[in-house]
Structure to design on (902 residues):
């Protein structure tokens, strides 16, 4: 079913909303330690695809195979949305849904939620197991913040922090769960050129240092072409093409989806000028 | 240096707070202007604060509105009164049952909350509270109906308490509740509830099981309300159906909104503002009842408009102003020097 | 059979009261995005105005009611102008709590204006009863039912067929977009609060003769109106109205045929159970979240 070096295999994914097919028979797979891009014009269905992967929506058809943290193959549709992160699949949010009133490190600790084994009572009474757990996870969170370069801000309240910092905190949060696949939801939105370059660097750093795959869902073409090993293009919820950055750029179907019939128009213009 | 750190420890602060409150009965005996009636007022305020802390867990941290706090508090009050007076049960056993039964009902309401959200949920809790209040009026054998039910001061381990010692018990319970709450909200539970409130989708993506945490929130909120109900009926020593009205539930809401959402001291402050201040000071003014209603209402509106997270956060602004004045003074000295 | 018919007719009257109150709540909800918990007490205040005018100045009842309408519109608009308008940045929960604060303010102000004793408001039509198919219904009750229906029809007509109605529906659908398209949403919102006040005073004046004009006059109506909105769904204007009549009818039928004491409570429990299966009410639509 799934190759040894694949971490996610999507086969025939379909979902419709009230008669409108948002995703139509889509298939692709992502390898281990790969940075994989998913692109398409506005409304192509990119968001819907990864909402289906994370089980926020339940697909109508198709299989979603995932190799979890323990190396076992899981069918994602058999799991509830809050169980997905336990398998090693985590996502970021375009609107950076951090908790404004909490500190940066507390926000990162939310990402470690699944690693807490102590019960509410143990926490309320501050029994040793709960205290030890909290301490250990806090050290881990500090370590991640250090590696992303924002350790010095760890106790600052999230509210009012610059957007770039919040983005890093969101990354840190996903890394707390030791993921095998991180889905990035338009991480370049709202960043300028310099920041986008830094983002590309960070994406590579995360893949290299934390040994995980990244599914990058993005609009910003430069980032995608720059950082992705392979890219899948979709439109109207359907598969268009898959390949390296160069291959995708040259693919006529992709060009048409983004730019319309511009190649043909160009030919006509040339001929009339004559 | 060491003394400074000692005082900054939150647990020490809670205990010191309790000790200060515990001096009241002694002060009432020593100073004539502190009447012994104040013990009832402050004791009542602390009891309300316990229920309000539970509501804060539900609304402040988890973002779930409940208008049923009064109903659960009343239910626990009646259960404990019935068990101790009619069935002669020991106080501690009655307290346990009187807390457990409403908590179970609270958990059932929590189950419902997964399907019903926001305003729909608030109104559903209102309906539940109304049904409970009706049982107070109708189940005569249990509640004595409109005539009200009487109970006595607590007694356990062969000690019978009186008003002053019951007050001490209340202070102790309140400090314990504050400590428990502090531990809960500053650990994994607090973060999970905050995440749930901020964004259900994001919290689920982080592994938070919404159903489980909603149930936990409702369970604790109801348990605190029930605990407070038990303390109420054994301190005030009576319970009427009309006490457990929508207005009381609204008062709890006012306490945490005005005092401070997600703030433990804020909640106690809110209880003082809504209950103790009118009871202690404004009683002398004519039309006191109506004015205190108006006062509370206007306060709620103003606080939401200008301090949406509660008056307790006023202290940050005070610190800022203090610093400004302080800095200005420093600047002047510098220029002169 | 005649008892059943009588119950039905009575229920239509109670239903009218709930429907007018529920409509007041839903109009404010759909334009200001607030569940106005204070609708009940504000109606109570307006009813006091009517009663005070009637008793103290000896003017005919219908004139006093007009006075009450004028006061209700003013109070409604004032609330919007002074309070609600300044709460744009406030969270939805906090907005709800503001209306709870309003309740306390009104509960405090009313006795200061009108004293602490309950007052009596007579019925508009005292002409006696009508017999339909063996069931009794007072002319007043019949008038209330018809008036309520006419008022609601007029409102619906205005909503569907006039420029103002379109402005209200657009604001109700999406306030931000409406503003961008040039709809004077601030005026629409104020207008909506005014109308809610009018609906409130009418429902208050209908209920008052059956009991006495006191602080708790509208408590039961308020609770049932809220439950009607929940049952009917907050997404439509007609949902809560339909639900209000259903509540009026079911409550009465349950009280008579099942249990006079627990009838209302049984109804609440049934509605709660229903909500579990249809969490958005009879006519509510589930909004699919986009993340």
């Amino acid at each position: 079913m799934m190759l040894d070096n694949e971490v996610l295999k999507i086969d025939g994914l379909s979902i419709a909303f009230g008669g409108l097919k948002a995703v139509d028979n889509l298939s692709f797979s992502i390898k281990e330690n790969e940075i994989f891009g998913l692109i398409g014009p506005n409304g192509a269905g990119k968001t819907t695809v990864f909402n289906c992967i994370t089980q926020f929506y339940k697909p109508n058809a198709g299989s979603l195979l995932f190799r979890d943290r323990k190396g076992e193959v899981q069918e994602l549709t058999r799991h509830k949305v809050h169980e997905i992160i336990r398998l090693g699949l985590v996502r970021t949010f375009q609107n950076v849904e951090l908790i404004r009133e909490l500190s940066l490190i507390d926000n990162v600790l939310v990402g470690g939620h699944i690693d807490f084994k102590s019960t509410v009572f143990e926490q309320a009474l501050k029994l040793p197991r709960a205290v030890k757990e909290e301490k250990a996870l806090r050290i881990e969170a500090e370590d991640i913040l250090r590696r992303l370069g924002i350790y010095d801000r760890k106790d600052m309240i999230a509210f009012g922090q610059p957007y770039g910092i919040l983005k890093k905190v969101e990354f840190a949060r996903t890394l707390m769960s030791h993921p095998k696949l991180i889905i990035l939801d338009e991480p370049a939105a709202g960043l300028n050129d310099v920041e986008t370059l830094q983002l590309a660097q960070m994406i590579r750093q995360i893949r290299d240092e934390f040994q995980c795959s990244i599914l990058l869902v993005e609009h910003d073409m430069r980032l995608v072409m720059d950082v992705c090993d392979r890219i899948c293009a979709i439109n109207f919820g359907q598969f268009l093409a898959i390949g390296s950055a160069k291959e995708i750029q040259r693919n006529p179907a992709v060009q048409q989806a983004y730019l319309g019939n511009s190649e043909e128009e160009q030919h006509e213009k040339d001929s009339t000028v004559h | 240096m060491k003394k400074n750190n000692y005082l900054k420890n939150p647990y020490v602060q809670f205990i010191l707070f309790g000790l200060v409150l515990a001096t009241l009965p002694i002060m009432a005996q020593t100073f004539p202007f502190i009447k012994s009636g104040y013990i009832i007022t402050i004791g009542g305020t602390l009891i309300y604060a316990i229920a309000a802390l539970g509501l804060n867990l539900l609304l402040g941290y988890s973002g779930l509105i409940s208008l049923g706090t009064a109903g659960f508090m009343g239910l626990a009050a009646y259960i404990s009164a019935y068990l101790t007076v009619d069935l002669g049960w020991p106080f501690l056993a009655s307290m346990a049952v009187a807390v457990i039964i409403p908590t179970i009902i609270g958990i059932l309401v929590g189950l419902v909350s997964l399907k019903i959200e926001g305003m729909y949920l608030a109104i559903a809790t209102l309906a539940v509270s109304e049904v409970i209040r009706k049982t107070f009026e109708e189940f005569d054998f249990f509640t004595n109906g409109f005539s009200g039910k009487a109970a006595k001061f607590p007694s356990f381990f062969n000690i019978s308490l009186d008003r002053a010692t019951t007050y001490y018990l209340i202070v102790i319970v309140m400090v314990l509740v504050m400590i428990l709450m502090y531990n809960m909200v500053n650990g994994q539970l607090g973060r999970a509830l905050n995440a749930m409130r901020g964004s259900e989708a994001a919290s689920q993506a982080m592994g938070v099981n919404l159903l489980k945490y909603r149930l936990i929130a409702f369970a604790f909120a109801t348990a605190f309300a029930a605990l407070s109900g038990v303390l109420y009926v054994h301190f005030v020593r009576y319970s009427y159906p009309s006490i457990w009205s929508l207005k009381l539930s609204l008062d709890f809401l006012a306490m945490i909104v005005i005092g401070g959402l997600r703030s433990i001291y804020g909640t106690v402050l809110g209880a003082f503002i809504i209950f103790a201040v009118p009871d202690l000071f404004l009683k002398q003014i004519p039309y006191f009842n109506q004015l205190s209603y108006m006062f509370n209402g206007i306060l709620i509106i103003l606080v939401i408009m200008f301090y949406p997270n509660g008056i307790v956060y006023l202290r940050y602004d005070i610190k800022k102003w203090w610093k400004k004045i302080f800095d200005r003074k420093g600047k002047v000295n510098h220029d002169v020097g | 059979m005649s008892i059943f018919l009588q119950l039905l007719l009575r229920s239509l009257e109670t239903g009218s009261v709930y429907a007018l109150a529920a409509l007041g709540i839903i109009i404010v909800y759909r334009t200001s995005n607030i569940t106005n918990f204070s609708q009940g007490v504000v109606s109570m205040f307006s009813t006091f105005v009517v009663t005070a005018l009637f008793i103290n100045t000896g003017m005919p009842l219908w004139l006093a009611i007009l006075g009450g309408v004028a006061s209700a519109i003013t109070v409604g608009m004032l609330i919007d102008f002074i309070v609600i308008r300044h709460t744009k940045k406030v969270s939805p929960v906090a907005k709800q709590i503001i209306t709870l604060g309003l309740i306390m303010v009104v509960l405090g102000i009313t006795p200061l204006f009108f004293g602490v004793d309950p007052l009596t408001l007579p019925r508009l039509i005292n002409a006696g009863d009508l017999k339909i198919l063996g069931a009794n219904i007072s002319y007043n009750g019949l008038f209330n039912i018809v008036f309520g229906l006419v008022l609601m029809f007029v409102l619906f007509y205005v909503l569907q067929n006039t420029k103002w109605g379109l402005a209200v529906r657009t604001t109700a659908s999406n306030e931000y977009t409406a503003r961008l398209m040039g709809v004077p949403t601030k005026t629409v919102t104020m207008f909506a609060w005014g109308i809610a006040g009018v609906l409130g005073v009418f429902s208050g004046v209908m209920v008052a003769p059956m009991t006495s004009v006191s602080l708790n006059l509208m408590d039961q109506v308020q609770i049932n109106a809220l439950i009607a909105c929940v049952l009917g769904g907050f997404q439509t204007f007609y949902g809560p109205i339909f639900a209000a009549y259903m509540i009026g009818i079911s409550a009465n039928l349950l009280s008579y045929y099942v249990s006079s004491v627990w009838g209302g409570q049984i109804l609440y429990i049934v509605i709660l159970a229903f909500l579990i299966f249809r969490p958005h009410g009879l006519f509510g639509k589930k909004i699919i979240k986009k993340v």
